[in-house]
Structure formats: structure tokens, C-alpha cells
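A student in our group prepared the protein record below, which I am reviewing. This is what I was given:
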Amino acid sequence: MNSSITVPWFSSKGFFLVILCLALVSCSQGRRSNAGSGRSSSGSSQPSGNVFDDYLKAEFAPADGFDFPFGDGDGGGAYQDKATGKRFDGWYIATHFAENYSLGIHPGEDWNGNGGGNTDLGQDVFAVANGRVVFAANCGRLWGNVIVIEHLFYENHEKKKIRSLYAHLHEIKIHEGDKVRRRQLIATVGQDPEKLFNAHLHLELRWDESLEPTYWPTSDHKDISWVKEHYTQPTSFINSHRKISVPQSEPVLILVDQTTYKMQLHQKGVLIREYDVSFGQAAGPKQIQGDNKTPVGMYFVIQKHKGKFDGPYGDYYGGYWIKVNYPNSFDASRAERQGLLSPGQKTAISKSWEQRAPTLQNTALGGGIGFHGWIREWKNDGPRHLSWGCVVMHLSDVGNLFEQVPEGTMVVIF
């Protein structure tokens, strides 16, 4: 909610009444709040027990990226004042995320056109990403028209959900239950019903799907740390998620589950074959060079080789080598926080990984991770931790996989 104008009657008593109204107001179609709950599960509400099926299950199109919901989608763009016909360039944040202002802790961002006043009244509002509309109705005092959209997206090896909320809308152009696409027109910029504030777009990104549409943290005595856990800063999130890979859209996809020792090969969304596999000698996700652990995350095939391998361990490849670009951007971010990588190394790894290219191999994180055979055939009921961190395949299977996965293939290891 925008704080760009001053309301003279905001005495301490008036402020209390406003907060109380925020706490009590709800939409007739809204769900009851479970304000004390933590971040909701990012997976399916009814897991099948099969990690592969749960990971790929999507009731609506996953997000392939996030845009700003106004202007050109990049956070800017010119617009024309519908009342005067004057043109203005750009948008700005009037009230920031987690800002403590007259109405309490702000759980989103209020966006205004640079023309100021009501020059942005009636401007188009777009869906930030692919998703499904879970709420679209008028919520009355202070909130006005509100839309909530649920988004599914993939980040590293995780499937996540987040909800975008758009408030003070002039017109609603979609309905609850609609499936929307990124940058689809969903509404226009409006004001609160009492017109206490200038026209603006109130935007929230919520991790917690249990919150009712008009939930306001301050009215429930929540502090800033709680807000930052249950919501996220819209601008930062959108900027860091402009482009997202969608596993279901990959021409070739490899999924690896370390808990069941299984691996699947998908082509154009169809399961082609399932393999038995083995992993690194040590348990847990790979952290540093030499820990003998298999990494967890999303990677891409960057190199293939078959035939004879030189060196004292050449025979352990079993005649085939399919290398992936470990470490990835998420490995690098974690390592930078731990002081294992410099900012420059982290940036270089992230850039190369996003391009599905080889990443730095000579850091504390190590490298040389991929798929290969073994020096001899092994049994499924025997030791399943053989390698120094790679995924080990049966000699009878590795050649089959080698021929079906081109460079650039997405690999997701759980």
C-alpha cells in the first residue's frame, strides 16, 4: 500500500482503527488465514512416493521466468496518462519491501508511474509468470480489487511454489481458476476504494500459500524477520529469476535419485528407460573437492568420450565418459557464502552454467563429475557406493545412455 500522500486524520487512534480494519477485513471468497504456519511445501500436495513423478507433475504450466507486472516487463517502459494524454517514462517504488511505514511493515512493493499522482491509473497489469489464478475479487475497504496467482518453478533440483498478489486494481480481467501465461494482461492499475492513496500497484510475492488475500502481518503482530521468511522482495526475486529452465520442456532429460539408486531418461516428455546406478563412496551432497560425494542439483552435459582412457584409473570409466558442468551456480553461491570461492569465481561459474558450458574445475569445490561405467560389472544388491563422486552405470547400460544424450542435456540429481 502506497504512502505517497498524507492522510490528516491518521492520529494514533485513527492508525489503530486502520490496523484493526486491516486485521478484520476479509474477502467473502478468501480462505481463512493460518498466520502462524511456516513456509508451505513446494512440492505436490499429494506426493506419489516416486520422486521422479512428483518432480515432473505440474497441473499448470511451470514458470519459464518472471517479469515485472507493468510497463515493458523489465521494470521500466513509457505509458500514456489516460486522463490527459501526456506520456511519461519509467516506474519507481514508492514503498519498499519490509519498509516500516505508517501502516506497519510493508510485505510487498508499491509501484508508481514516474508521472506521479494518478497518471498511472488504468495502466495495464500483467501476470509476472505462468501460473494459475487462485483468487480474483473485490475485497472492499483499503484493498479494493485483488488478484492472487500461484506459480510453479524449478530451482536447482527443487520444485517450488510462490504466489504473486496484485492489489488496488481498477479492473480485473481474469477469473479464479484461469491458467495464465507470463505477461498476460490480468488487470489495470487502480486505487483503494476510499481513494486515500494515489493510484499505484501493490505487489507481493508470498511463499506462504495459507495466508488469506488481505492478510497484513502488522495486524497480526508479526515482525520483520517473519515477513522476510514468509514473503520475498519482489524486485530482487524477479531480477534473479528472469529466465528459468523447465525440465518438462527439455528435448532430453536425465533424472537421478540417490535414495533409490535409480535414473530415468526422458525424451520430449516421454520416459524412455530407467536404469540402476551407483554413486560416490561417501553419503550426502558433494561440498568440496575430494569428499567422494555425488553432487545434488541441476547440471548439463558438456563432454562425451568413449574408447580407451589413459592413466592409472582409466579402466574405471568402463569405456564411456559423460561429463556434466559441476559446480553449478547454486554450488558456487553456497561456496561463496562459506568463504570457499571469491566473488569473481562465483560469477564466472554462474555465467558458464547458465550457458550450459564448462564451469571452473580448479576451485575448492572440485570438478570432474559425470556418468561412466566401472572396471567390472557390479550387482544391484551389493555395494552401491563405488565412485569418487560420479554416477556409476552398469556396463550393459552405459553405452545405451551414451548414444542418446547429446551435449547440453539437462541432468537433475536428487
The chain has seven helices and 23 strands. The domain at 12-240 is CATH 2.70.70.10 (Glucose Permease (Domain IIA)). Residues 12-24 form the longest helix (13 residues).
